[in-house]
């Protein structure tokens, strides 16, 4: 199933959680959990769920019981406010910043973060951004705030995206040399995917998360889930450049450029190539000639569209 199909199915199953949620309901004889909103799964994992207007909202599956309980607590704070019953009240007693973070998000987005196990990272990024803004407001100065928000970078690598990178395959092929040098090592036999997070300064500090996998069939390293959304929101087209970097602080703390560390911060940015006719056709990057002429299709520098007699370049 393609990534876009998976995302559509997940949106349709927002309330019941799809197959995972169905599995939890299908095993009523399984022992119950000691935590509120936590249900055991047939595979030994633990599921989390909450009820909204008598309808069940599935929050995802987790490796341990406590993690599922924490996911329920987050949902309870968003769905029912500070007065909602939670499993770990002490952990949320003075979390005013977290409450503000939750209040600014739609319920569906919080649920999506919990299902994808990205909530903690999103919260940390939001708190880091808000503390930087507060430092600037308190007189830290613009330069200081800028330094905190935009740390010095160490460039990792760049790639000019291909038509297949921005097409229906919903994946970005990472050059093998760069993948093995800069990204976490993957077991090529098991090919277990990992989740990579990249901050986007141009997107207001948004954190993009991509599933990073090794495809043994094509012997390639790829970014899959999350990539199609990045392509859509950025309006990427073939020939645009995607650049990856990391905070220089990682190297200062003993992590060489390209090595993977727990505190490593990575960044992503894109640069658009110059589009012909973007100011005339109204569709950036549509590949048309200025003034609305016919599309030029080139192969090894030759206009094969004209050669095939299906229209010359810039025919009006």
Properties at a glance:
316 residues, alpha+beta, 4-stranded antiparallel sheet, 3-stranded antiparallel sheet, 13 helices, globular, disordered N terminus, disordered C terminus
Describe this structure in words.
The strands form four sheets. A four-stranded antiparallel β-sheet has the order 5-8-7-6. A three-stranded antiparallel β-sheet has the order 1-2-3, sandwiched between helices. The longest helix has 22 residues, at 119-140. The model is unreliable at 3-12, 141-149, 251-262, 279-296 and 306-316 (pLDDT under 50). The protein is an alpha+beta fold and 316 residues long. Helix 3 packs antiparallel against helix 6 (107-115) and helix 7 runs antiparallel to helix 8 (142-149). Helix content is 36%, strand content 21%. 23% of the residues are buried. The protein has helices spanning 3-12, 18-25, 65-80, 89-92, 96-103, 107-115, 119-140, 142-149, 176-182, 227-234, 248-252, 278-281, 304-307, and strands at residues 38-40, 46-52, 55-62, 153-160, 172-174, 194-200, 206-215, 220-223, 241-247, 266-271, 298-299, 302-303. It contains 13 helices and twelve strands.
Largest sheet: 4 strands, antiparallel
**Average predicted local confidence, pLDDT:** 74
Count of separate DSSP helical elements: 13
Helix content: 25-40%
Number of strands: 12
Shape type: globular
Pfam family, one: B3
Main location: nucleus
Keywords: DNA-binding, Nucleus, Transcription, Transcription regulation
Organism: Urochloa decumbens
């Amino acid at each position: 199933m393609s990534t876009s199909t998976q995302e559509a199915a997940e949106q349709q199953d927002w309330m019941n959680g799809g197959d995972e949620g169905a599995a939890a309901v299908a095993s009523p004889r399984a022992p119950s959990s000691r935590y509120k909103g936590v249900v055991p799964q047939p595979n030994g994992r633990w599921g989390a769920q909450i009820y909204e207007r008598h309808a069940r909202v599935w929050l995802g599956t987790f490796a341990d019981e406590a993690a599922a309980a924490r996911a329920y607590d987050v949902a309870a704070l968003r769905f029912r406010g500070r007065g909602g019953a939670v499993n770990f009240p002490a952990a949320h007693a003075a979390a005013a910043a977290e409450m503000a973070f939750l209040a600014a998000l739609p319920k569906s987005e919080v649920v999506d973060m919990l299902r994808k196990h990205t909530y903690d990272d999103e919260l940390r990024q939001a708190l880091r951004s808000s503390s930087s803004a507060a430092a600037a407001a308190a007189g830290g100065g613009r330069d200081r705030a800028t330094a905190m928000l935009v740390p010095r970078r160490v460039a990792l690598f760049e790639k000019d995206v291909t038509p297949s990178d921005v097409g229906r395959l919903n994946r970005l092929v990472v050059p093998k040399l760069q993948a093995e040098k800069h990204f976490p090592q993957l077991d090529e036999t098991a090919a277990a995917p990992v989740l990579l997070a990249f901050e986007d300064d141009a997107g207001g500090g948004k954190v993009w998360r991509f599933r990073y996998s090794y495809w043994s069939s094509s012997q390639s390293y790829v970014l899959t889930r999350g990539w199609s959304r990045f392509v859509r929101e950025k309006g990427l087209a073939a020939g645009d450049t995607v650049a990856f970097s990391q905070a220089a602080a990682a190297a200062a703390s003993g992590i060489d450029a390209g090595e993977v560390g727990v505190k490593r911060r990575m960044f992503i940015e894109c640069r658009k190539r110059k589009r012909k006719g973007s100011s005339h056709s109204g569709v950036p990057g549509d590949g048309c000639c200025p003034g609305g002429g016919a599309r030029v299709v080139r192969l090894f520098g030759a206009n094969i569209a004209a050669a095939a007699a299906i229209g010359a370049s810039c025919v009006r």
